[in-house]
Amino acid sequence: MDKQNTYILGIESSCDDTAAAVLCNGKILSNVVATQKIHEQYGGVVPELASRAHQQNIVPVVDQAIKKAGIHKEQLSAIAFTRGPGLMGSLLVGTSFAKSLSLALAIPLIEVNHMQAHILAHFIEEEGYEVPQFPFLGLTISGGHTQIVKVTDHFEMDVIGETIDDAVGEAFDKSAKILGLPYPGGPLIDKYAQKGNPLAFPFTKPRVDGLNFSFSGFKTAVLYFIQKKLAENPDFIKENLEDICASIQYTIINILIDKLKKATKGTGIKTIAMGGGVSANSGIRKALKEGEKTFGWVTHIPKFEFTTDNAAMIAIVGYLKYQKNDFTNQHIVAKPRFAI
Ligand code: KG4
Ligand code: ZN
After folding, report:
1. Mutate-to-test residue for ligand 1 from 37, 45, 172, 245, highest number of ligand atoms within 8 A of CB
2. Quick one: which ligand is closest to 313's CA?
3. Which of 52, 60, 160, 300 has the smallest number of CB atoms closer than 10 Å to its CB?
4. CA 81 from chain center: how many Å?
């Protein structure tokens, strides 16, 4: 065994991506993701199909991650896996696989909370990427999550705001579906929005107390608006797609920025670290950068491959826990509902 280096294998299987990554002393050696295409035709993730696809993917994905890292599995120091939150059938695959491999290799097993991992992804060592300074606010926005988290240390986190219904990615995807765009429609809304007028069709923002979010009302507002317009003009979507997308995106971003403004004011913390698939959105990236000038924010957005569901973020949590000897054992079970 290589005593100088710490090699962590990370395994992620909480939703519809089967992923494995190897880190050496916090630096990335490999980061493999098999995204399940099967769900596209259903317009959303089908849990039973996700679980089956994980079973097919897990061995080749882990094998590839170890090969790409240029190491032998016997060199691994520990295995970190996503325990939750997520879909039970999906989590079970990664959890069982991680337990078996740790037993076979006689190396420690480390449990990881997926939501903590989205935030700690900022600590993957990358040249040119400056890690956020504590304390900071983590903004995690994806197809499954919408959270503002106050982070005072690697493992001291408080959720200070979250969605009470749909996630922000769902607001994008469901709006896209109403417009007849394929799943997942978020990136397409972003693409069309770039050529449209964000003020063309004003949508009202939902009123939610404190730092929480609600997106289900927004989706309904989009639906009624489109139905009404289509009744007047059957070509309404075709003729106005760019303006509709720009208006939807503008409203969603305003909702996020309003809450961030409130959160920075309330906590006095001006450092914001964003993660999750929706952080790829060009509008939210621009709005955060503008916040640097307007409100004195310091913002961090990691590489795209570390923002969507991935195993490098699981491995970095594994590395941080490895240094604290924070290990689990063979009795561990998956936890679909798992608070930070
Ligand atoms: O993190 P992720 O890959 O998976 C989870 O949901 O955990 O996030 C996927 C979500 C989808 O809702 C997708 O539409 C959205 O991120 N997304 C975007 C963009 N790229 C991905 N939404 C808006 N603009 C984008 N450019
Ligand atoms: Zn996620």
Report:
1. 172
2. 2
3. 60
4. 16
